[in-house]
Automatic annotation (TrEMBL):
Residue span(s) of domain Dihydroxy-acid/6-phosphogluconate dehydratase C-terminal: 406-589
Domain of life: Bacteria
Keywords recorded for this protein, A-Z: 4Fe-4S, Carbohydrate metabolism, Gluconate utilization, Iron, Iron-sulfur, Lyase, Metal-binding
Family: Belongs to the IlvD/Edd family.
Transcription regulation listed as a keyword: no
Domain Dihydroxy-acid/6-phosphogluconate dehydratase N-terminal: 64-375
The protein's name: Phosphogluconate dehydratase
SUPFAM superfamilies per record: IlvD/EDD N-terminal domain-like (SSF143975), LeuD/IlvD-like (SSF52016)
Enzyme class: lyase
One Pfam match: ILV_EDD_C
Family matches, as InterPro entries: 6-phosphgluc_deHydtase, Dihydro-acid_dehy_C, DiOHA_6PGluconate_deHydtase_CS, ILV_EDD_C, ILV_EDD_N, IlvD/EDD_N
GO biological processes: D-gluconate metabolic process; Entner-Doudoroff pathway through 6-phosphogluconate
Amino acid sequence: MLTQINEVKKRIDARSQKTRTEYLKKIEIWKTKSPNRNNLGCSNLAHTFAACGQKGKSENLNIKKFIGIITAYNDMLSAHAPFEAYPKKLKKEAEKLNLHVQVAGGVPAMCDGITQGEPGMELSLFSRDTIALSTAVGLSHNVFDSAICMGTCDKIVPGLLMGALQFGHLPVIFIPGGPMSTGISNEAKSESRKSFAAGEISKIDLLEIEQQAYHSPGTCTFYGTANTNQLIAEAMGFQLPGSAFTPSDSPLRELLNAESLKSLMRLMDSEIGIGEMLDINNWLNAMIVLLASGGSTNLVIHLIAMARCAGYIISPEDFNNLSSVIPLLCQVYPNGKADVNEFHAEGGIARLLTNLLDADLIYENIQTVAGLGLQKYTKIPAINDSNENNLDWREVDFELITATSIRTAKNPFKNNGGIKFIGGDIAEGVIKVSALEKENEIITGPARVFTSQEDVLNAFELNELNADLIIVLLGQSPTSNGMPELHKLTSPINVLQSKGYKIALVTDGRMSGASGSFPALIHAVSINNNLYKIQDNDQLTLDLKKAIFSIENFDSEREPIHIESNGFGLGRELFSIFRSNVGSVSNGASIFYE
C-alpha cells in the first residue's frame, strides 16, 4: 500500500525541492552560530543568569547544556493548567543530569470552548501565528542547546511547532498535559445541548451538565482538534511514545517528563535538530493518522502551515489523494461513542500505529525524539517493576484487549479516510465524513444565505429553517473575520435533523474538531467569487459521492454580495494586519506565506 502513498510523497518532494533545500541550508548555517554563549559579552551573560541564583554565574558555560522552555501555561485552560508545576520539577531533574533549564518564554493560549459563538473566536486562528511569533521571541536569545515546548490544545501545538521550526538546528521535544478523567459521556452532553437548543431544558440545567463534562485539569476528552494534535505529535515523533493520552493525574506523567530531558540529551549528543528530524516521512505520517483516525478538519489547515515552515509544500489535494488509500480505523467521539480515555485504555495510539504498520500504510523509518523508528511508538509506557523512578516501554499483544474504538485495516470502519474534498465550479472545500451515517448521500435543496452565525441562530429560533435546505454562511473567511469556528450551529442543526429535515451547511468558515454530525462543506474557497453569488432559493446540490457542489441554472454574471467586516472590540482591531495579510486557506491560512 505504501506504493500509492509514495506517489503522493514524490509529488510533495518535487514541489518542495527548492524550499526544503533552502530550509536545510539555513539549519547548517545556524548550527555553527548557535548557541552563542561563549561569544556573548559579560553584560549579556549576566542578564542570562540574573534569575538563576549565584551558582549559575560561576559555572563554566560549556559544562552544562542549556534547555529553554516555551510554555503555554495558564490556569484558565484546563489542558494547560498542569504546566504550572512542570518547570520546577524539570529543573530538579535537570540537576541530576547536569543540565541547565530555564523558562525562555510564554505563549498565549486561548480556549475555543470559551469563545465559541463569541467575537473573541475571530482571534482564534490568528492566535496560531501569534504563538509562532512568541515562540521565536522566547528562543531568540540564542543561548540554548535545545528546547522544550509545553502545549496541548487547538492552535497552541501548531503555533509552537511553527515557531520551533524557525530554530530547526535545535533539538526540540514537546511535553503535553494529558487528558482529564472522563465525566459525563460525550453522547449525553450532546443530547443535553440539543435539548437546550430545542427549548426543553433551562440554561442552568445545561450548565450543570456541562460542568460534569469539563470538571478538572487536563484536555477535554472528546476527539477534537486538541487531541488530534496529540495523535499527530506521536505519529510524527516530536513527543514521547504514550505521552499524549496518559492521564493528567497519572504517576506516569512525571516519569514521562523526566524522560523527555534524557531524550533531549540524546538528541543534543547526536546533533539532531527538529528541522532535520521532521523529514518528509514524518509529515506523511501526520496526514495518514489524521485520515485513519477521523480527526479534526482544522489539522488540514494547520499541517499545511506547519509543513511550510519546514520547507514542505503540502496541498489539500494531497490529503484527498491519501484519503482514497487510507481507511478509517478509529471511532472516537464525535465519530463514535468512546472518548480518548477509553481509546487509550483499548491500546490507543500504539494500537493504531501497530495496525497501520501491519497494513504497510505508514512509514516506519522515521527519526523521532525516542530514537530511530516508529516501532518505538507501538509500545506502552509503564512504571518499572523494580524501580518506581524508572520508566519502561512495553510491547503489548493488542489482540488480547477488546476494542470497540480501533480496528485493523482488514476490517475498517470505512474504506476511505475521514475527510473528503469537494470541488465544482462554485467552490472547493473539505467535509468531515467520519461521523456521517450516509457519507455518500446527495443533498438537494434551496439555499438560505446568511452573513453571520447570529443570523442563522435567529432564523432557527423563529422556525424559519424547518425544511430541507442548504444553509450558506458567508463572510467567515480569514480575510473577512479571521475564520472562526462555527460549532455553535451544531446543536440547532442537529435539532433540525432530528425533526426529519435534510440539512447541510456550506461556509468559508471552520467547524470545531468536535463537529461532523451533519454534512458541512467548510473551508470553502470561492471559484471566481461564485460562492458569494449564491442567493436565497437557488437550488443547490451537495453530492458527497461524486464530491461536487453545484447550483442549478447558475448565473455566473451575478454581482457577488459584499460583506462589511465588523472587526472591532475585544482586541480585534489589533489583528487587522493579520486579516489584510493572511494567505489562502489552501496554503494554511498563515500570515507567513501567501
